[in-house]
UniProtKB/TrEMBL annotation:
Species this chain originates from: Asanoa ishikariensis
Name the record gives this protein: Purine nucleosidase/pyrimidine-specific ribonucleoside hydrolase
A GO molecular-function descriptor: purine nucleosidase activity
Pfam families: IU_nuc_hydro (PF01156)
Gene Ontology BP term (one): purine nucleoside catabolic process
């Protein structure tokens, strides 16, 4: 799989799950502007891989803004660095000397097997890949993205951050005809980093465990301030978990469109759960989450990375 991300506290944990679970092979990590500017999200991806002791996975920087309009980062949630909380001052690998879209193309073309794209930020890079290199589509097994919701939003009343940040990109991906799984706020708000979860991370007794605890502590303070939620939802790792073990989420096939022109609802995902529109289903929409199985996967991966055999 290729992980496209904008770390981001929950992206950071998603990267650990992706490289820490033995059932996955991460061919590359690509970064996009979203939670913070591209230089910061890229540095943060490199930091997390360095912390995890992973080398040899190329990291390439992609789009520094959405397809249309200007970038609005989520500094209120992720801080000035994009990964505020722990001290992440450590030597990191070099970023690849190639644009993320080109790295994706190469990795897909060179892979012996079809590749899963896991998208954890605005869908800008993925949309550009599909537009610029449509020949890769048959070699993409599926796209699993964190974004949208069957319910309400977190950035506007009906818009979720990743989709609101680049609605046109999401529209391109949703219309691509590829198999798509959507992990929206309706399920990610069930995976809460409670005090008990944070204590479990700390209790791993490794640097990585401590960093996860510190990341989640900062994330919790931001969610409390912004939303009045004492326990922050850990969105992005659920998309990775769904690739590792499909039974972690329950999905239903439904038509999903993105509102591009609404006066108040630009970037909202319009999920036709009850098949009112007559449109053909284009997305497997996550509607249920096995919360314990999810945390078990994540905790096991972080434990394994912290004490490699
Ligand atoms: C999504 O927005 C970002 O802030 C998170 O990293 C996640 O991908 C949740 O709406
Ligand atoms: Ca993200």
């Amino acid at each position: 799989m290729i992980v496209d991300c904008d770390p981001g506290h929950d992206d950071a944990l998603a990267l650990l799950l992706a490289v820490g679970d033995p059932r996955l092979r991460v061919l590359g990590v690509t970064t996009v502007a979203g939670n913070q500017t591209l230089d910061k999200t890229t540095r943060n991806a490199l930091r997390m891989l360095a912390l995890a002791g992973v080398d040899g996975v190329p990291v390439a920087a992609g789009c520094d803004r959405p397809l249309v309009g200007e970038l609005t980062v989520a500094e209120n949630i992720h801080g000035a660095s994009g990964l505020d909380g722990p001290d992440l001052d450590l030597p990191v690998a070099e970023v690849a000397d190639v644009h993320a879209v080109e790295l994706m193309r190469r990795l897909i073309v060179e892979s012996a097997e079809p590749v899963t794209l896991v998208a954890l930020g605005p869908l800008t890079n993925v949309a550009l890949l599909l537009r610029r290199h449509p020949e890769v589509a048959p070699r993409v097994r599926r796209v699993v993205f964190m974004g949208g919701s069957t319910e309400r939003g977190n950035t506007t009343p009906y818009g979720e951050f990743n989709i609101v940040t680049d609605p046109e990109a999401a529209d391109i991906v949703l219309r691509s005809g590829l198999p798509i799984t959507m992990i929206g706020l309706n399920v990610t708000h069930q995976a809460l980093a409670t005090e008990q979860i944070i204590a479990e991370f700390r209790g791993l007794g490794t640097r990585l465990g401590t960093v996860c605890a510190e990341l989640m502590t900062f994330f919790a303070s931001a969610y409390l301030r912004e939303f009045g939620l004492p326990h922050p939802p850990v969105h992005d790792p659920i998309a990775v978990a769904a690739v590792i073990d499909a039974s972690v989420v329950r999905t239903v096939a439904a038509p999903v469109a993105v509102e591009l022109t609404g006066t108040y609802t630009r970037g909202a995902t319009v999920v036709d759960l009850h098949h009112r529109t007559g449109a053909a289903p284009n997305v497997d929409v996550a509607v249920g989450l096995d919360v314990d199985a999810f945390w078990d996967l994540l905790m096991t991966a972080v434990r394994r990375l912290g004490a490699p055999a």
